[in-house]
Amino acid sequence: MRLYTYFLPKENIETHKYYIVIDTLRATSSIATALSVGCDSITIVNNPEKAFELKGEHTLLLGERNAMKISGFDYSNSPSEILKNAAHFKNKKIILCTTNGSKSLLLANSKGITIAASLINLKAVLQYLLTRKIDDIGIICSGTDGNVSLEDVFTAGRLLSVLSKQDITYFNDESYIALNMANIPHARILQYSIHAQKLKKMGLDKDLTMCFNESLFNVVPISKMNKNEFKSKIDI
Amino acid sequence: MRLYTYFLPKENIETHKYYIVIDTLRATSSIATALSVGCDSITIVNNPEKAFELKGEHTLLLGERNAMKISGFDYSNSPSEILKNAAHFKNKKIILCTTNGSKSLLLANSKGITIAASLINLKAVLQYLLTRKIDDIGIICSGTDGNVSLEDVFTAGRLLSVLSKQDITYFNDESYIALNMANIPHARILQYSIHAQKLKKMGLDKDLTMCFNESLFNVVPISKMNKNEFKSKIDI
Hints:
Largest sheet of chain A: 7 strands, mixed
Order of helices and strands of chain A: EEHEHEEHHEHEHEHEHHHHEE
CATH class of chain A: Alpha Beta
Number of strands of chain A: 11
CATH architecture of chain A: Alpha-Beta Complex
Radius of gyration of chain A: 16 Å
Oligomer: homodimer
Shape of chain A: globular
Largest interface: A-B, 22 and 22 residues
Helix content of chain A: 25-40%
Number of helices of chain A: 11
CATH superfamily of chain A: ComB-like
Strand order of the largest sheet of chain A: 9-1-8-2-7-10-11
C-alpha cells in the first residue's frame, strides 16, 4: 500500500487512485453532517459568485469567509447549524464555499476519486477503504490560510494509525509525522489548535464539540474524479 | 516568547527577530562542521553560476545537486568530507550551494538575523538563544524538493523541547506538531526519513552518522540580516 500525506494542498502532489481530503474545522465535517441528515449531494465552489450562479430549485448555499456566514447564503459552514436545521436539508443539493476546504477538495477532485474525511466520519471512511482494499491513497490536509492545521494532521494521524497496519510499500515523511500524533487526547488538540482557539473565541463551541465527536456519523462522502459531486457511498 | 515553526520555506512567513534555519541532511550540518574546523565564513548561493562568480583567493566552493558534488566545485555538501579535509578549510571563505538549504537560508536572511541549526550543533544554538533571552523566533525547516522532511521537523522538535519551557505567548500548530516528535529515537528518524534512506543507498552512511551525532560541535553559525555571511558566534 502506498500512503502519502500532504499537510497542505499544493500543485505538485503525486497521482493517487484515491484522495482523502481533511478539513476537520469545518468543511469536511459539514459535508459528512449534511449527507447524514439526508441532503442529496454537495458541490464545491471556491468563490461566492460561482455559488450564486449554481443556485436553483432545491439548492442550499453553504459557506463562510473568515469563519462567518457569507452574505446571501442560506447557512454557514457549520455542522451544528446543519444538524439543528436537519429537516431543511432533506433531498437538497448543497453548494459549499469555504476558505480552505474548497481549495483542497477541488484540487483533489481534479486529480482522482475524492473522499471527504473528518473525525466525525472516521470509522466509516476507514471501513470503506479497507473493505475495498484501496492500496494507493493521498491524504490532503486543508490547513488554515496556507498554514498547517494541527487538527487536520491529527485527523490524518487517526486514519493512518489504522491504514498503516496494512502492507506498506511507500510511506512519506508527512505520513510518519501525522501517525505520531494519533494518540494525543482530543482535548489537547482543541487546546493547541490555533484555528480551534479562534472558533472558540467566536462562540462556536458547539461546532468544536461536534467536529471532535469521533465517528458520530456513518457516512462516506465521495465524488468521482472531476465530477465535483459528493454523495454518500456511491459505487466506484 | 513567540515561537513559530515552518515545515517548509515559503514566502508569506511572519517577521521575527531571529530565524533558525534547519537542513539536517545536510546543509546546516555542513555549515556547522566547516566553521568548527576553522573556516572564516560561509556565503550561500542558490545556483552554481553565482558560486563561480564569487570564487577568489582563499575561497572553496561547496555544493551538491541531487546529493552529488557539483562539477568544478571543491567539495560536496558533506560534513564527513569537510571533517576529513579539515586542514584545507582553515581560514577559507566558503561558498555553499545546495538544493534545499540555500533556498531557506537565503529566504530567512532576507527577513532577519539567521542562525544555521542542525542536530550537530543543537546545544550551542540553544545556549546562544537562552543566554540572550531571544523572545521571537521563527524556525524554518528546509524540506526536500518541496516536501516536508522528517529529520528537519525532528530537529525543530529537539530545539522546541527546550525553548517551549520559557514563557510562551504564541506557539503555532507546526511548533506543536514538531514538539511532539522530540522524543523519538534518532535511529527511527533515520529509518523513516525518505531523504536519509536515499543518502544511505548512495553510500553516504558517514554523513548520516555525523549529522545525527547530537551536539558534536559547539558552534553557532550566524549572519546579520541581508549580510549572507555566516560566522561563528558573532556579536549582534
